[in-house]
Amino acid sequence: MIKSNNSLRGQNIMIVNDEDDINLLFEMLLSGEGYNVKVFTNPHIAINNFERDLYDLLIIDILLPDLNGFELYERLRSLDIKVKVCFLTAGEINYEQFKKAASFPEITTEDCFIKIPVENSVLIRKVKNILSIQLNYLQSQEKGFTTA
To answer: What is the pLDDT of the chain when averaged over all its residues?
Structure first.
């Protein structure tokens, strides 16, 4: 059993990226924080292995072979509307350009955008921020509160 001080331990993350070295690093870092991480290099295999209500966060490379990251996210989101996403890019794009290109209204924070290379602490902070927003929302729903 993985031990961590992370209150979000046990949450599931799917990474879809065609760069094995980045996948290995992200998997090691996030697993070390107590997350359950599943990695795919092929977007079609990721779709075939996706299970509704299993994943709390998708980390998707924008530039994937055969299917770009935005298209992959649209397909996966059609299967599970609650899943959160964080996009990766090694390209020359900043957050404002990303927001225009992505046009997903549910992406409301810069934490949903990771530019490679990224410092380990920045990656972990962004993932924790996204998942804590989700956890806070779910807890408020359980208590009967609604958010605007």
So the answer is: 81
Number of H helices, E strands in the chain: 5, 5
CATH of the domain at 122: 3.40.50.2300
Provide the terminal-to-terminal Cα distance of the chain, rounded to the nearest Å.
Answer: 38
The 12-16 sheet, strands edge to edge: 36-40, 12-16, 57-61, 84-89, 113-115
Does the residue 50 lie in any domain? yes
Query: Is the pTM higher than 0.90?
Result: no
Q: Is residue 7 part of a domain?
A: no
pLDDT in tens, 4-42: 333 445 899 999 999 999 999 999 999 999 999 999 999
- The helix (H) or strand (E) run that includes residue 89 is strand 84-89
On whether residue 80 sits in a domain, the answer given is: yes
Would you call 84 helix, strand, or coil by DSSP? strand
> Structural domain tally of the chain?
1
- Which residue type sits at 13? I
- Convert the pLDDT of each residue in 46-57 to its tens digit: 999 999 999 999
Domain interval for residue 55: 12-142
In 3D, which of 128, 124, 131, 115 has the Cα closest to residue 25?
Answer: 124
